[in-house]
Structure formats: C-alpha cells, structure tokens
Amino acid sequence: MPIVYVHGVATRDAEHPFLEIEAYLRRYVAPAICADPNTMPIFHAYWGELGARLAYGGISLPRSLLLGQGTETIAAGDIQRALLASSLGAALPAGAGAEVPGGDNLATGLISGRAGMPAMNPLRLKDLTQDQLSNLLVELVASAEPDAQRRIALTLAADAAARDAALTLALASAPDMATECQRVAQALAAASGDGLVAQGGGWLQRMADMLKETLGRAASVPGAAATLVAAELRRPLNDFVSRFLGDAFVYLENRQMPGSEAPGPIQQVFLDRMAKAADAQRQRADEAIVVLSHSMGGQIVYDAVTHFMPRDPRFAGVRIALWCATASQVGYFEELKLFCASDPQYHGEAPAPFPAAHIDSWWNVWDPNDFISYSARGIFDRVDDMAYLSGMSLLGAHSSYLRHPSFFRQLRCRVEEALK
C-alpha cells in the first residue's frame, strides 16, 4: 500500500522536512500496512518550486516596533523553548504547579516572568504524559541538532525513552527537577546508542541543561508575557503568513490551465505522484493508498479527489483508504466556496457531501494553537475531525504535527482502523 505525502505552504526544499517525515512513516505507520516497511513506496508530491516568489525580496514586510530589525538581532531559539514550555505547562492538569507572586519590571519580566503577572512553580517532568515528554524532547532535539540524519535518530530515541516504563518509575522517585533532567538525558543517551552520544561531546550534560532551562522558563513565562515575546517575533510570522497567502493565491490562480479544465502545474505534480502510487498499488496487488497532506496540501488533495481525478482515466477504480489532512484550511476554503466542486446549495445545516469518488476515510487534524489550521466538522459529511494538542506555541504549532512521533502513532491507529 503506497503512501503519498503532499506538503503545505512555505516549503522550498524538496528534501527537508520530507527526509524526516519519510523516516517516521516507515518507523511508525508502515508496519501496519506492509510486511516489509523498507520496501513500501512513499511518494513526495513536492510543488514548492512552483509556489509564490516575492519580486522585491519581501521588503514590504514590516519590522518589529520594539526591536526594529525583526529576529536578526535576537536568539529566537531560547524564546521558542520558553514558549514551548509555557504551552506545555498550560496543558497540564490543574494543580500541577502553584502560583507564585510576580514583580514589577516588565523588561526583565518578559523572560524572567517578573512582570506583575502570576507564574507557576517549575514544572516537574513526572507531571508530563508520555506524549508530552516525547514532544518536549523532540522539540529540544530539533532546536539543538542541525544534522538531519542525527536528528532523525535522536528523535526516534527520544520517543522510545519517553515511553520507557523504567524512566517513568525513575522520574516518579526523583527528588527534584535537576535529578529528573539528568535521568531523562541518561535514558535518551541509552536509547540513542553509544555511537550517537560519542559524536556529541558533552551531549548528555547539554541535553540535561536544556531540559532544566526549558522547564524553568515554563514557570517564568506566563501567558501574557509569552504573547508579548511572540509579538517581537513578528518578522518570522510575517514571512510565514506572506508565503501562505502567496502560495494560496498562486495555486488558486493557476489551478487549471487557462481556457480549459486541465490541471495547472501544482495540481499536476500531485496527480502525477498519485498516478505513480496507483501503478505501485496495482503491481503490489494492494487494495488502496494512504495520503498524508499538510496545510495547503489539503486543498490540493480535495480539488484532486473531487474534480480532477474523476475526470482522469488513470484513476479509474483507484481508492484512497485514508486521507489524513493535517493543519489544513479545507473547511475554511469550502466555507468560502473556493473549490472547483464547491456548490452553494451546501451551507448552514447542509454539509457538503463526503468526497467518496476516491476516498474511503478522511481524518482532518487541527491544533488549537495553530492559527491557520481549521476544523471541517459540520462542513463536510462523515469527516473524522479531531484536535491534536501539540503543546507548541503559534510559532511552531503549524508544522509540529509532522515532527512528533506521538502524531504518527495516532496515524498508524487510524490506518489500521481504515483497513479493517
């Protein structure tokens, strides 16, 4: 059973992050659908080179009023870790920490938490669920390890360590946060193997220090201060939103060839990869295909399965067992009636029909912290709509789905259900 992945907006590299996504699909999803995961075809519908281009290099994007120069003058990694920890703290059950009084210095309070706002006592790792601990470790690895192959290996090790029953017991008996951080770092080192640790020189202590810093920031960055810090990262947010709007406009303008219903260049990329998947499906005598889309990729898939594929003889009888749309705007686009198949008769209490021509099951996943992902519940009939809580801030939530093994574990469960 082949898998087709179609990326979303602001992607301009054919290999990154697909290299990691492919590794996670083989590790967590492929065993549910293929006897030999290493032989399962995974196709990447990369269309980024056809996306938006800014003619003046983006000089129209405003800079931050406080810093003046956007993020070039600050270390965004530290702030992102603070926001990550703050989000994780907010996701914990009530009572996981106690409020402590703040101070009155806003300038220091942005980072220290002393901004006249309540903060939380330092988080304890024992209070995190296995998914939360896994997500936290994955994000720290992503911020600290630039090499893609090592990052993939360390991410897999982080997920394994977070789910180790021995570590759960070790955390429960740890007397303080510092001990917890050391025990997690040791578990991660053991899970990753001696070779990876040896390459890192001081890696064990660095990971422990990063954990301690991040958990400390969770206590010291209350929600209002986190919002102020996020506002100072306006440049990356502007860059992202501009690329999102640009890619969306380019796709809609060129969705079909001028004067015909033939698919435009971006849509054609996806259809060509689907055709290859269909050929692989026939050769392997598999019954169906799995499609994973991210962000704008969801709109590309929906247009394909409702308009272009039914008109293309290459896809006669082709079935998609499960389409997982992550961080998409499919529901919002249908509310605006922007799809080729959109029909004004479906509105209000009358949901649009399920795209059954080529799809058996559709799982729409959105993150409450992701400001450009949308629910599809009540808009489409029979859609399985679910909120995925990544624990990330708005700076990272849009792409966090596909960095977390916890998400791919859920995807595997959905694939297994679709194949029953």
Give a verbal description of the structure:
It is a single chain. This protein has 420 residues and is an alpha/beta fold. It folds into 2 domains: 236 residues, 3-Layer(aba) Sandwich (Rossmann fold); 156 residues, no CATH class. Helix content is 47%, strand content 8%. The protein contains 16 helices and 8 strands. The protein has a 6-stranded parallel β-sheet, sandwiched between helices. A two-stranded antiparallel sheet has the order 3-4. Helix 2 runs antiparallel to helix 4, helix 5 crosses helix 7 and helix 7 crosses helix 9. The radius of gyration is 23 Å and the shape is globular. The two termini are 14 Å apart. About 11% of the residues have low confidence.
* CATH homology superfamily name of the largest domain: Alpha/Beta hydrolase fold, catalytic domain
User: How do the strands line up in the largest sheet?
Assistant: 2-1-5-6-7-8
| Shape label | globular
CATH architecture verdict of the largest domain: 3-Layer(aba) Sandwich
Tally of individual domains: 2
Distance between the termini: 14 Å
The DSSP helix count reads 16
Query: Which value, in Å, is the CA radius of gyration?
Result: 23 Å
Indicate the multimeric state: single chain
Q: How large a portion of the residues is in β-strands, by DSSP E?
A: 5-15%
Mean pLDDT: 81
- Tell me, what is the CATH class of the largest domain? Alpha Beta
CATH topology of the largest domain: Rossmann fold
Task: Report the uncertain regions.
Answer: 65-76, 91-120, 221-226
By DSSP, the count of extended strands is 8
Compressed to H and E, one letter per element, the order equals EHEHEHEHHHHHHHHHEHEHEEHH
Q: Structural class of the secondary elements?
A: alpha/beta
| Main pleated-sheet profile | 6 strands, parallel
Proportion of helical residues:
40-55%
